[in-house]
């Protein structure tokens, strides 16, 4: 458990650093992209004019994790998500062969509207693609899952600090000893993301994220990392370490890397996901996802 | 839409009246059953010693709706529930052939522990059974869905009146003009239950039921029945009419009859459900189902 399994090559390194780059205006050629609507950004992506990470784009709108599997795995994976809704909150699932969403963004094409895709065969990363139309199959089933970007925006609006954004890093993620409930061929430990908070913001963070059950919801653990099998906060399994100030409490949320890691462990013949940080941008407002 | 479709023969008439009978002690031979634990009641049911409706039993514990379908329908139905979580809140779904739950009640047997089952072939009610072991197939997939009994208990504890319980009747249910999101072969209108409330209790009722997303959650409509296609509150499509006092507001919740009605409309070769009112009694407390 200490070492990240070799098959969990999610290619997430590429995502690091872009979040800040957008904010600092280093991507001046794409200036104003952060002002565009979800539909306008998807149009750029579709035309191959944007293949970079999506944090900071279309603020206010929900972004989604993507998993595409052959139909024979679809019931098991849907069941896995139903049983493990904190790490795997389903926003939308499409019928076999369908590549247009009904509710998240009806004019989008799932095969072209994600900036970068990872293609896996038997759990091994085979290629990164900007367009998967030639890989699409009649029995491909698309799963779109909620993403922590949605609740991070709500935290920031409530003046709860989000350290990795402040430090222009990728969020630190850790493999825990919390088992997911298995379903068919899918099983594995929960992966969590960590945000250090001043003690007086912890309760507010619980309240805010509890409203967003469809984007991971309330934390799964507060405090002692060793209680959930994390040995060293300075060495995350994915993403980057962040500064933890004196007196701050580490707060852990179920993370969307969990379903990807679980799928990779199951080694399906074929699977396509978004590349980490390169999300599907929906037309749904984060606030529309709130329960209360 | 005015007439209830003939294929929606859910046999719910049998459920009417029992709720009150238990409270009034008319079932003296089974005296004290309302004091028994979920496990003890399931044991009685398994031995054939209780084949009556379950309202009022194991108060505090969640009861569940049951739908059993052959595996070839399972992905579509799971997808339908995911897309329509208010009428179809999944509590647990079992792998094909599995008849023991993992989380709701690990010692239960889904084939014997429900007091009465309805067996349908091609959407037609064929038989009522007390034990379905001889009907069980290796590819049977079990769906357990949340039930409004859970939130009614929370309403009563907060002094929000629940009229059909006060009047010892079955809750009134109506077919609306609100379409469910279709999934594969499953489609149809949402069925709602109605509880009339004094205006000063409506907001509290919204707050309380919002906490219970896994048992239908917040109302889907407040006020004018015609806005959701209901012509006459005095003539429910299922269940019994209840008294609406002067000034009271009808409040409508998504109803667990929806998935059953949708399954019947799809006319699967084979399907087993609980008989209305004869629910599966779980070991999970209603409070454990609350989001907040």
Structure overview:
The structure is a homodimer of 292-residue chains. Chain A is an alpha+beta fold and 292 residues long. Helix content of chain A is 21%, strand content 23%. The first copy, chain A, is built from seven helices and eleven strands. In chain A, strands 1, 2, 3, 4, 5, 10 and 11 form a seven-stranded antiparallel beta sheet that branches. Chain A has a four-stranded antiparallel beta sheet with strand order 6-7-9-8. The A-B interface holds A 71, 74-75, 78-79, 82-83, 90, 92-93, 95, 102-103, 181, 183-184, 210, 213, 217, 291-292 and B 71, 74-75, 78-79, 82-83, 90, 92-93, 95, 102-103, 181, 183-184, 210, 213, 217, 291-292.
Mean pLDDT of chain A equals 89
Tally the helices of chain A: what do you get? 7
DSSP strand tally of chain A: 11
Largest interface: A-B, 21 and 21 residues
Note the main sheet of chain A.
7 strands, antiparallel
What is the share of helical residues of chain A? 10-25%
Shape of chain A: globular
Category from helices, strands and their pairing of chain A: alpha+beta
What gap, in angstroms, lies between the N and C termini of chain A?
37 Å
Query: Strand share of the residues of chain A?
Result: 15-25%
């Amino acid at each position: 458990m200490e070492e990240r399994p070799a098959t969990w090559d999610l290619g997430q390194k590429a995502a690091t650093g872009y979040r800040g780059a957008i904010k600092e205006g280093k991507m001046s050629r794409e200036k104003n992209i952060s002002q565009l609507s979800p539909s306008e950004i998807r149009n750029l992506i579709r035309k191959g004019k944007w293949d970079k990470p999506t944090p900071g784009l279309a603020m206010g709108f929900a972004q989604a994790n993507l998993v595409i599997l052959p139909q024979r795995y679809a019931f098991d994976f849907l069941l896995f998500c139903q049983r493990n809704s904190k790490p795997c909150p389903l926003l939308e699932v499409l019928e076999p062969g369908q590549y247009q969403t009904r509710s998240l963004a009806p004019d989008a094409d799932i095969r072209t509207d994600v900036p970068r895709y990872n293609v896996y065969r038997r759990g091994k990363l085979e290629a990164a693609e900007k367009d998967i139309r030639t890989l699409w199959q009649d029995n491909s089933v698309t799963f779109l899952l909620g993403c922590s970007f949605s609740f991070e925006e709500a935290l920031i609006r409530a003046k709860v600090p989000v350290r990795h954004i402040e430090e222009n890093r990728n969020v630190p993620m850790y493999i825990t000893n919390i088992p997911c409930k298995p379903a068919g061929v899918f099983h594995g430990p929960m992966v969590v993301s960590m945000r250090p908070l001043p003690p007086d913001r912890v309760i507010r963070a619980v309240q805010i994220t509890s409203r967003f059950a469809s984007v991971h919801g309330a934390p799964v653990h507060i405090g002692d990392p060793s209680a959930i099998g994390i040995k060293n906060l300075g060495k995350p399994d994915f993403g980057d370490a962040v500064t933890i100030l004196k007196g701050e409490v580490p707060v852990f949320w179920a993370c969307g890397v969990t379903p990807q890691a679980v799928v990779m462990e199951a080694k399906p013949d074929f699977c396509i996901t978004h590349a980490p940080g390169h999300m599907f941008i929906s037309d749904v407002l984060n606030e529309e996802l709130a329960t209360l």
